[in-house]
Please model this.
Amino acid sequence: MRHARKALLLGLAAALVGGAATAQQVDFSRYVALGDSYCAGMSNYSLLQKHQLNSYPAILARQAGFTGTFQQPLISEPGIPAELALTALHVVGGQVSPVIGPKSASMGLPINITYPSIYNNLGIPGAEVHDLIATTGNANNLQSDAVLYAQGKISTAQLFADIVLRFPVLPGTTTPATALAQAIAAQGTFYTVEIGGDDVIGAVQTGLPLDGVTMTSVANFTADYTTLLGALRQERPSATIVVMNLSDETLWPFATAIKPYIVNPSTGAHIPLLAENGPLTEQDLVLLTASPLLAQGYGIPGTGKLLPESSIDASGLHVGVVIRAAARAAIRKRIGELNQVISAVAAQVHAKVWDVNPLWAQLTAGTYLIGGVPVSSAFLTGGFFGYDGFHPTELGYAIIANDLVKTINAQLGTKVPQVNLRPFLEGSATAGATSVMAATTTLSEQAAIGIVKAYLPNALTDKLEVNTHVVRRHIAERADRVPAGQINP
Model:
């Protein structure tokens, strides 16, 4: 095994130093997309056919004139997990408060899991970069793994690997059928690679940036990303590769929709919310998962109830709902470091970098216009993000796809037609955007806990479970995570 790994590393080194695709006509005939939940087309915290059909890879395939069907692992209603929706309207203090929760107690089923070849879209919700090179799936284990997932015993990436990757080894071989191996076996002529967001999402969801616990270290990310792109270039030397970098996830509505203060109606003064480690400043962030707690008075001065903050003790990681300014700075620093890795490795293998940050800047500022109509990152009312605060609506994915088209045309000299965004703006494709007052919208406790456990399945959610029994879990063991029982803050 050691000799085989050495040989692989030597081969990758050769690819990094000498292997490169020369300037050529871009061939979209075998387009393969690698990535995480954004690549998969997840929306409203669910993978669901009606949204998947407008994933950004599917839209790009249509715009580029992809021949045949762009194959994706489609999921029936109500999605996996069940899609979030407006499920109730509560009246609190005379004010209407919409409640967001799962629209069903059941989950959908794979529609085309028996498709005999490799999917074009290999996006795996919950995947970190290590998952693309190491995780395999098995469709025969899907039913049992779904039970383990519901119990918080396996990761989101492992559940969806059963759906997306389906077989543990490439047919007729002993090669583990990872996403990378399948992408190579598909003999792609054009690849997009979008990965890394989930390597920091745990830090965003907890406000506790810890290497090996809630985010991937720079060293591990560098090694895995180098392996990913190096192997892709080595095995597909003539293919075009476009890689997406990372945006600042602390600017997403999951982290910005709730202000760290309440407003005095008489004076307009900001009154800080109160958390376990003291009053919040206006540079601190309150996560969307705090909304069911706020609805019960947590954080409100005078109630004696404090918003919980993440902490680690002998029993594990207890998830809170606050990102302090220092933690936010550390998260943003890590995102910047990972973007430097992405750019450096892309340059080594002659891949093009799709910088999404100018687009995110427009969305954050509310200056992105479609025919004069502004679209922004504002929660619910902006049109770009869905009910979970971090996955786009179909309109959002169409905007992302259009940005990708512009990048491809600018960097590769192609003339792929831009996406017509108006149908997404005007039609039902914007499902997930709503005109309800975002400031009064509450995420249900079930939805809040479900979102956290999707990315941190082994974390403790006792601080979020106000009226439910606490399920004790431990930090999962894996090669790039510290062993259980040895968690160091």
